[in-house]
Amino acid sequence: MKLQFYFTVIFSLTSILTRSQELSQLNVEDIYKNLCASCHTSSAIGGSLKDGKWKYGGSDEEILHSIKNGITEKGMVAYSSVLTDEQIRAIVVYIREMESTDSVESTELDISDKVLETRYHTFKVETLTSGFRTPWSIAFLPDGSKLITERLGPIHLISSDNRLDSIPIKNTPKVIFDGPEGGMMDIALHPDYEKNGWIYLAFADGWRDEMGKSWSQTAIVRGRIRDHQWIDQEWIYKSDLKFYMQSGAHYGTRIAFDDGYIYFVIGERGVMGHAQDLNRPNGKIFRLHDDGSIPKDNPFIETPEIPKGIWSYGHRNPQGLTIDSNHNVYATEHGAQGGDEFNLIQKGKNYGWPIITHGINYNGQPITSITEKEGMEQPLVHWTPSIAPCGLTQYIGSLFPNWQNDFFVGSLRAQELHRLRVINKKVVDQEIILKGIGRIRDVRTGPDGYIYLLTDEPARLIRLVPSEKKGE
Ligand code: HEC
């Protein structure tokens, strides 16, 4: 028995070594299938690696340690001589992904009338409006009505009693929407909206060439709405046309205002290296005056080649952005497979993508084995496996006093609402508030103190309403 066991180990080791040449070509899924899967099902000698149970420790570091050094006395060889550090790290992320896909509930939670108890508040979920498709963002008008953008282009008016107006806003900018991403995205009111009426839109701007291919880039305009018409449009940001791309990916984006400035995001548009290339707008967070002019104290103002609106760089695809009362800018960012981030955005700083990341590529190829580097910022929190964070708000309101100043992060993939408490620029507390209600596309604190969510699949506007604890 024992002899046969060693035999198996030696046999599998030599067959691994002869294959190591090809290994560098393989993606992580193939590596896993070839090297690991045979011993790691629930009925095999190594046991399942997806059941969330860990004998030798379940942190990323401990799993990494198990793979690198093996569990030799039980029959698993040390893989440090077979696989590179990058590959081993990619496998850890891959194991984490498997763990989560097995556990994510895909069924839609029947939320109406359900009282949900969380650490600091008990609440109900109320569905307000549906009837639109793939919503992206919501803005609250002073009279209690709301504006909702739909990815395909239309902007809808929702009355103060939450009825969907049958007539969408006309003459809004044409958007490019070819793939799963792009189209009409963020909508935000100028902080002095009541005086100036300005509404800002972020969208995929572009054109279709004679071959039928579309060229696009994230752009920002402002305008006003009167009688269901988009009027008075002005450009706030439009890239040089040489930066328009055929890619339909990673536009970002969100808009946030602070003290006369507008911040917004352009994702790296699917070309990783562009995030580090300061000569391009891709993979950057921008800061401009609210009229689109360039602030004199922006970090790269002295360098002629660099687009002068750039505030920070090294971003992949941020889709959550908010600014607190102390002018701290926070953003959430989609990583690749794993490595989603919550960042404090600071002037001129490099957020590392794709040189450092806690995630791997979707095709399973490792991007890099390093997760930190001198001169590059670390996220305040990173999520592996991916939750696909979208929408970010800081709660300031009276209905949920124990959540005051906490951040709420929506998620597409995990269909979760996360609450983060930040003290002294550190996340000290994290809680999943809601799960399985559909992909959360936007999360906002309403002026009335409710927390509003936009979900797609199913597309609807919902809100969290404080409730008494069960049995009280
Ligand atoms: C020849 C069989 C075999 C192969 C191939 C193998 N393992 Fe294992 N593995 C084991 C055994 C046996 C254990 C110890 C199980 C126990 O003690 O219950 C183990 C343990 C582990 C653990 C620790 C699990 C825990 O509960 O803490 C990890 C992680 C792991 N293996 C990952 C891998 C990965 C990744 C690969 C592929 C690169 C791999 N293994 C290939 C047999 C194998």
CATH topology title of the largest domain: Neuraminidase
Report the top-level CATH class of the largest domain: Mainly Beta
The unreliable regions are: 1-21, 103-108
**Helix percent band:** 10-25%
Number of strands: 24
Instruction: Summarize model confidence as the mean pLDDT.
Output: 89
Number of domains: 2
Radius of gyration, whole Å = 24 Å
Class by alpha and beta content: alpha+beta
Percent in strands = 25-35%
Measured distance between first and last alpha carbons = 62 Å
Name every ligand kind in the structure.
heme C
Strands ordered across the widest β-sheet:
1-2-24-23-22
The run of helices and strands is HHHHEEEEEEHEEEEEEEEEEEEEEEEEE
Q: What CATH architecture label of the largest domain applies?
A: 6 Propeller
CATH homolog superfamily of the largest domain: TolB, C-terminal domain
Largest sheet: 5 strands, antiparallel
Contiguous helical run count: 5
Principal-axes shape call: globular
Keywords:
472 residues, alpha+beta, Cytochrome Bc1 Complex, Chain D, domain 2, Neuraminidase, 2 domains, 5-stranded antiparallel beta sheet, 4-stranded antiparallel beta sheet, 5 helices, 24 strands, 14% helix, globular, disordered N terminus, binds heme C
